[in-house]
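Today's session is about reading a structure prediction critically. Students often jump straight to the picture, but the first step is always the sequence itself: look for stretches that repeat, for charged clusters, for runs of hydrophobic residues. Only then move on to the predicted structure, which in these notes is written as discrete structure tokens rather than atom positions. Here is the chain we will use throughout the hour.
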Amino acid sequence: MKTAIVYYSLKGSTKKYCESLAKESGADIFEVTEKRHRGMFSAFIPGCPDAMKQKASVLTEGPIDLTSYDKIVIASPVWAGMPAPAFNSIVKMLPAGKDVEIHLVSGGGSTEAEAHEKVIALVEKSGSKVVAFKDIANPSMNGPVK
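Below is the predicted structure for this chain, in token form.
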């Protein structure tokens, strides 16, 4: 099964996690970056309200061609209980009919059930199927990646 890992990372924790996951699994890995450079302040204002509203951000890359992959892992930090806006931009790239795993990296290690439902609904609206949802404790805050 050919797998792609597509992720956004603000401060490097999600990147570190995805690089480890790609090394273990042999998956291809793609990092997306936002056109708008965010510091901590702009990540929280307006980033958190945008995350809560599931708004997409403008990425510096064009769409990544994910059609040849059987499974796609999308990873993102959690802002205000929801994936960062770049996550929503990645979802817009999904081709229909793909198996998708969602990996959310957060300081608390888990998101609320209501957030899970909203995120799963967004992915499934693209025509893909969520096959796994993982909350990952932020490695830089809670010890090494497991």
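Discussion point for the tutorial: The chain has one domain: 3-142.
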